[in-house]
Amino acid sequence: KKNIINRLIRLLGDIKYDSIKLNKLFSQHIDNENFRSSVYYYMTKCPSDFFNQICLIELDRQKIDQIALNQKKLILKYLQGANKNFISEAVIQKFIEQVLTHAELKVSLLKIFQKFPQAKYKEFIKDCLASEDDLITLHAILCVKKLNDETLVENIVVLLKHDSYSISNHALDALLRLPGLRAKRNAIDFFVQNSNDLDIAAKVMRSFVPPENDSDYFSKQVQQIIISQPEHQLLQDLNEFYEKLLKNQSSFSQVTLA
């Protein structure tokens, strides 16, 4: 009978069958070890303000460090699937303050911040960028991509030389997305230093957005590569990239003069 009820609860979640009566019924079984996992599964499929309040109540009525690890995971999994309007800042803050020692919970929090980027959690993300756990670092980089905060440039630049290809690759992606002149200078400098790496060179030329200023710094860096490496495998792409930078520089100067 227990297995049948669990399967039924999960099935209702899979078909996203939502109703006030079901919400109230399932909330009565949130503390039942036999059904808790299935109820949270249903909650992830049918997120609502009602269930968000349940999560908050679960955390309010006992110290968070006394809640079973599996239940913490279920709560965070629910929050990952919830709609933005239903995310409880109080719940998030409790996890940030009190469960930072568990790597899996950190990753779960970072997944939430990837979906709902907010500057108020920047310090947490910055700390995670310096983590010795590669999975935490990787998910922190993914947060930076969404956060669009140029003050994190230096934290990302350090990761360009990371031993993990996945981390260094995502760090370059993040750097190319960040706004501001400092991010763009670092991207071009890294491009120059690694111009013989075809993957890096192709990625930078494909994704680099020229800055809105009339500095010739960027075009000169690319021009130097063309001059010093006349047989570069991506010479045609380099020439097109150089022309793109020159055109942007010229267009900005014309607009400024006008």
Structural overview:
By secondary structure, the protein is mainly α. 69% of the residues lie in helices and 0% in strands. The longest helix is centred in the last third of the chain and has 23 residues, at 235-257.
Number of helices: 15
Helix and strand pattern: HHHHHHHHHHHHHHH
The major beta sheet can be summarized as: none
Overall mean pLDDT: 84
Low-confidence stretches: 252-258
The 3D shape can be described as elongated
| Radius of gyration from the alpha-carbon trace, in angstroms | 24 Å
Record field, number of beta strands:
0
Our estimate of the beta-strand percent is under 5%
Output the structural class.
Answer: mainly alpha
Short description, anyone?
The chain is mainly α.
State the main characteristics.
258 residues, 69% helix, elongated
Topology:
Blueprint: H1 2-14, H2 20-27, H3 36-45, H4 49-60, H5 69-81, H6 89-98, H7 103-115, H8 122-129, H9 134-147, H10 153-157, H11 165-177, H12 181-193, H13 198-207, H14 217-228, H15 235-257
Helix pairs in contact: 1-3, 3-5, 5-7, 7-9, 8-9, 9-11, 11-12, 11-13, 12-14, 14-15
